Amino acid sequence: LVGYRYEIESKPIICPHCNGDVFDCGEAQLNTSGLTLLGLDFLNRSVYALVCNRCGRIEWFARQPERR
């Protein structure tokens, strides 16, 4: 797997499980049942997920982490 190192506010992101520092980044939408029922999924909030390349743990972030 090819991944990258990330940081938020100049602080490196480290996996709390294995201390890995290389991640794959993706974006996910947090769906709510009310907006889904109304067909308004596009109004749901998006978050960023970093997947540790070493152990697979997923860390969620409300802001997009910066690649180092």
Helix and strand element order: EEEHEEE
What integer is the average pLDDT?
87
Main beta sheet, described? 3 strands, antiparallel
Q: Biggest sheet: strands side by side, in what order? A: 2-1-6
Q: Are there runs of 5+ residues with pLDDT below 50, and where?
A: none
Description of the structure:
This protein has 68 residues and is mainly beta. It is 7% helix and 37% strand. It contains 1 helix and 6 strands; from the N terminus they run E-E-E-H-E-E-E. The protein has one helix at residues 33-37, and strands at 6-8, 11-12, 23-29, 46-52, 58-61, 66-67. The protein has a 3-stranded antiparallel β-sheet with strand order 2-1-6, with no helix packed on it. A 3-stranded antiparallel β-sheet has the order 3-4-5, with no helix packed on it. It starts with 5 loop residues before the first strand and ends with a strand.
List keywords for this structure.
single chain; 68 residues; mainly beta; three-stranded antiparallel beta sheet
What's this, in brief?
With 68 residues, the protein is mainly beta. It has one helix at 33-37; strands at 6-8, 11-12, 23-29, 46-52, 58-61, 66-67.
Describe the secondary structure blueprint for this structure.
Blueprint: E1 6-8, E2 11-12, E3 23-29, H1 33-37, E4 46-52, E5 58-61, E6 66-67
Antiparallel strand pairs: 1-2, 1-6, 3-4, 4-5
